[in-house]
Design a protein that fits this description.
It contains 10 helices and 5 strands. The protein is α/β, with parallel strands linked by helices. It folds into 2 domains: 61 residues; 161 residues, Rossmann fold (3-Layer(aba) Sandwich).
């Protein structure tokens, strides 16, 4: 009986407090009431005697409008964990993708774009190497090299030179025409690489032969740095002697394994 009486008295006290808070709110409505104070009065009664008793961890929680100093409650940190930055590697690196592609049964499409010497035909020779040495007769090699064209040309004609072929591997060949005083080579190259990687293809970069040019040597150094940062296979054409050597260097850079070896 004592327990029942105590519980009844407690409920009666709570009801009186709620009724008093409601009366105070109605009495001060015409006198520009403070809605936050009214809510505080009502929530104070509810929290301390009802919600607080049932869920103790809610008592003393961070009030509305105040920052929570606990870094573990930082939603930004949670979002950063769920959605990592773009600089972090996503999926396998190009070398792994190309190795799996060549070792697998599905035919692949290889596209060569950029600045190729007018007398060269090494994309065609690479296609022959794929058919014979690596036993991939159904692979397609598309040659869109434009002798004497800077990398801006590829950037401006990305759809026609690359995207329409849905390449599995893109070979970006950078030749002597890349040297230009009218543009920021590093910025243009980074923008081009970003767009090429958005195609979803594995990217390979071919660096030109500086041939004693300080300007070209500086750009080759920038190409090397970018390829190293982004784990992009790099084919150096410095001192190359003919198309077969170009093909050999490409196969070495891609670490292609001959069947049965």
């Amino acid at each position: 009986m004592l327990l029942i009486r105590t519980a009844a008295e407690r409920e009666e006290r709570q009801a009186r407090r709620l009724a008093k808070a409601a009366r105070d709110a109605s009495q001060h409505e015409s006198d520009t009431p403070d809605p936050e104070a009214t809510i505080e009065n009502l929530s104070g009664v509810q929290t301390t005697e009802s919600v607080g008793a049932a869920v103790p961890e809610l008592v003393g929680s961070t009030p509305a409008g105040e920052l929570d100093p606990d870094p573990s409650h930082d939603t930004g940190a949670v979002l950063e964990t769920l959605f990592p930055g773009e600089d972090e590697p996503q999926g396998p690196v190009p070398l792994e993708r190309i190795g799996e592609l060549v070792a697998g049964p599905r035919p692949a499409t290889w596209v060569f774009c950029g600045d190729g010497p007018a007398e060269t035909a090494f994309p065609d020779q690479f296609a022959a190497e794929l058919r014979t040495t690596y036993r991939r007769p159904l692979d397609v090699v598309v040659n869109t090299l434009v002798p004497g064209s800077p990398i801006e040309t590829v950037l401006e004609n990305l759809e026609w030179q690359l995207a329409r072929f849905h390449p599995d591997v893109v070979n970006l060949v950078i030749g002597p025409a890349a040297a230009s005083d009218d543009s920021d080579f590093a910025a243009t190259l980074a923008q081009l690489v970003d767009q090429l990687q958005e195609l979803g293809a594995a990217l390979v970069i071919h660096a030109p032969d500086p041939d004693g040019s300080d300007e070209l040597q500086a750009q080759v150094d920038e190409i090397r740095n970018l390829a190293l940062r982004r784990a992009i296979p790099l084919v150096e054409h410095a001192g190359v002697d003919g198309d077969q050597e170009r093909v050999d260097r490409l196969c070495q850079a891609l670490r292609l394994q001959r069947p049965g070896s």
